[in-house]
Every structure is written in structure tokens, then in C-alpha cells.
Specification:
Elements (H helix, E strand, L loop, with lengths): L1 E3 L2 H13 L4 E6 L5 H13 L2 E6 L9 H6 L4 H10 L4 E3 L3 H4 L18 H4 L3 H16 L3 E5 L3 H13 L5 E5 L19 H7 L1 H14 L4 H13 L4 E9 L15 E9 L2 E10 L2
Parallel strand pairs: 1-4, 2-3, 2-5, 3-4, 5-6
Antiparallel strand pairs: 7-8, 8-9
Helix pairs in contact: 7-8, 10-11
């Protein structure tokens, strides 16, 4: 496994591999890797000749300096895991390598970034768009793998690639959960045992919503059932809960035979967590 810190070096290597007609799978991460990441890595390993994993805590997508400072950084441990999983190349740049100067160009995702995460984290998705574009330009992937826990991010990156004709296939990978139902996340490392138990109620609320939806309840009735459950959970504070189309993130006004996903964000022990569940798939 080769580890690169300089963009030019991994660019030259991946360019060489692409000229040899090797397919390159990429898993972009911010490190603090867990089983959810490993699931992405394993799928990418099966589907590509070469596997690249990037590890970079991107400051542009944090609108809260404390959140950025507290984000877990476990590079040596991450590298050990990746080597065991058969990763070929790791790109772990320093911030000054990725951003020698503050970027002047931003990416505007339009209405799709104004809701849910975008509404509560101004500038977040512009930062995601910039770093993902840079990573694609540097690492030359054939396919890139994104977890659907970050549903809005996955959909926006997919839309960006389509709109800008970037030559990368975006693969969405289902959420990986703990036995409690809690969606795996690097942020879970910041929770106490009690906090982990409280956080597991986020998924339980989504499961209640799914039951309501399956009984042909309206979006408002479905959300209210989940909210009523969440309100009973001491230590859990919900920031938003939306039922949207998994194609364009538009709020759904009715429960018809159409794809739908319920998305939620909340706080446990000061840690911000997100999750979602398909109510009906394509």
C-alpha cells in the first residue's frame, strides 16, 4: 500500500494506471474509519482494479470551528485498517497541500442545498463540492463510493457529476448500522456509553415513521409520530426531520406510490448526528 501526501505524486500515479486502462475505485473519507467505511472499501475493492482511499478533514465544509477542532483524527490506526483491506493507494494530504491559498471558486448546488443540512450548515455543501472536485481531479477515479447515511451529500455529488460532466460514476452504498440500529459514524466515537444508547433511539424513531408510512399515513402524520417518540427521549434534541424525494430533495406533500426518504438530524451529548430511512424505494 502506497501512501501519498502530495497531490502531484498521486496524480501522476493514477494517471499512469488509467493509461494502462486500469479501473480506479475511490472512497473519499475524513478518516476516523469504522465498519461503515470498511463496507465502502470492500465494495470498491470488488469492483475495481485499483483502490484509492483519501483521508482529509476538509475545513471548507465545517461551519463550526469547534466541530472541526473536535473531529477525530486517527491516521495511523486508519492506515493499518486500510492495509489489511487490500487498499492500493492512500491519499492523506495536509491542508496546505490541498489549499495553498483560500479557494475563490465555490460550487452552488441551487435549491437542493438549501434544505436539511444546508439550511443548518451554511456553506457546508459548497465546501463538499470543492473538495470532492479536487479529489476527483487529483486521483482520477473511474468510480467513487459514498455512503447513503449522508443522503443529501450523496445526491448532491451525483448531481454535480452529472451537471458538470465529470467522468466519474457515483456509487451510493447503504447505511451500515450497529446492532442497536445506530448508523455508524466517526462522530459516535465522541459519545459515552449512555450517549450511544440515547443515540440508538434516532433509528427507532425512523422505524416508527416507516410503520406509519406503510399504513398510508400522510407525511405530517408520519413525521409527528416520530417527533412524539423523540420528545420522550431524554438527552436527545432533534434539529430537523423531513420527508423528501430521494431524487431532488423536495418535501413530499402526500403519501402516494412514489419514492420517499425520511431524514433527521439531532444532538446527543453535544454531538450532531444524522440518519435517514427509505420509506419507499424506486
Amino acid at each position: 500500500m502506497q501512501v501519498y501526501s502530495l497531490p502531484a505524486e498521486i496524480f501522476n500515479e493514477t494517471q499512469r494506471l488509467r493509461f494502462q486502462e486500469k479501473s480506479i475505485g475511490m472512497v473519499p473519507t475524513m478518516g476516523a474509519l469504522h465498519e461503515g467505511h470498511f463496507y465502502l472499501v470492500k465494495q470498491a475493492r470488488k469492483e475495481n482494479d485499483i483502490l484509492v482511499v483519501s483521508i482529509f478533514v476538509n475545513p471548507l465544509q465545517f461551519n463550526n470551528q469547534e466541530d472541526l477542532n473536535n473531529y477525530p483524527r486517527t491516521l495511523e490506526k486508519d492506515l493499518s485498517h486500510l492495509e489489511k483491506l487490500g487498499v492500493d493507494l492512500v491519499f492523506a494530504p495536509a491542508e496546505e497541500s490541498m489549499y495553498p491559498e483560500k479557494p475563490q471558486v465555490s460550487i452552488d448546488f441551487g435549491q437542493m442545498e438549501q434544505v436539511m443540512e444546508g439550511a443548518f450548515r451554511p456553506g457546508h455543501f459548497s465546501g463538499v463540492g470543492v473538495v470532492v472536485t479536487k479529489l476527483f481531479n487529483i486521483c482520477n477515479p473511474t468510480r467513487a463510493y459514498f455512503g447513503k447515511k449522508d443522503m443529501q451529500q450523496y445526491l448532491l455529488v451525483k448531481r454535480m457529476v452529472e451537471d458538470l460532466s465529470q467522468p466519474v460514476e457515483i456509487i451510493g452504498v447503504p447505511i451500515v448500522r450497529e446492532s442497536s440500529g445506530l448508523a455508524m459514524s466517526s462522530r459516535n466515537q465522541r459519545l459515552s456509553n449512555d450517549g450511544l444508547e440515547i443515540a440508538s433511539s434516532i433509528y427507532k424513531g425512523l422505524a416508527i415513521a416507516k410503520q406509519e408510512w406503510d399504513q398510508a399515513k400522510s407525511p405530517d402524520e408520519t413525521k409527528n409520530a416520530a417527533i412524539a417518540f423523540y420528545n420522550k427521549q431524554e438527552g436527545l434534541s432533534i434539529e430537523y426531520i423531513n420527508i423528501v424525494s430521494p431524487h431532488d430533495l423536495e418535501d413530499l406533500d402526500d403519501n402516494l406510490n412514489q419514492p420517499a426518504v425520511i431524514c433527521v438530524a439531532g444532538f446527543v451529548e453535544g454531538v450532531r448526528l444524522i440518519d435517514n430511512l427509505y420509506l419507499r424505494q424506486d
